[in-house]
Amino acid sequence: MNIVIGGASGAMPPLLGWTAITGQVGPEALVLFLIVFIWTPPHFWALACYRCADYAKSGLPMLPVTHGIRFTCLHSLLYVVMLTAATVLPYTLGMSGPWYLLGALVLDVIFLVYSVTLWRDYSDKLARLTFRYSIIYLTLLFAALLADHFLR
User: Fold this and answer.
1) Which cellular component, as a GO term, is one annotated location (predicted)?
2) pLDDT tens for residues 102-136?
């Protein structure tokens, strides 16, 4: 639960940046916040899965330690499904165009494949790859949003 609650602090930069530039908290800022907020659990849970023994030794109650790796992977998958829905919102709200939507959906499908595979056939190696992909995912997602702005 600490990752879910802590995700709000990690999601603040786009909200604060949007507000600083526009002078208001609009739906666009909240969508950017939502995307990062929902992305945070599957990102950190992948790391926590392949470092589960380290967390257990240190006594930190990470989800894989308290509820098991399979449970964690399932919840990670559910968050990636929610993330897929959230990443369509910039297009739906008119913040972006078809280039962003195409990029977001491609990135989402790849993240979903990683997450389903991780849940079905867990390995530390796959968890590491999923963690690394999650970093690439968020970087490319926001790059697609920026590129779409200049391509429209």
Assistant:
1) plasma membrane
2) 999 999 999 999 999 999 999 999 999 999 999 99
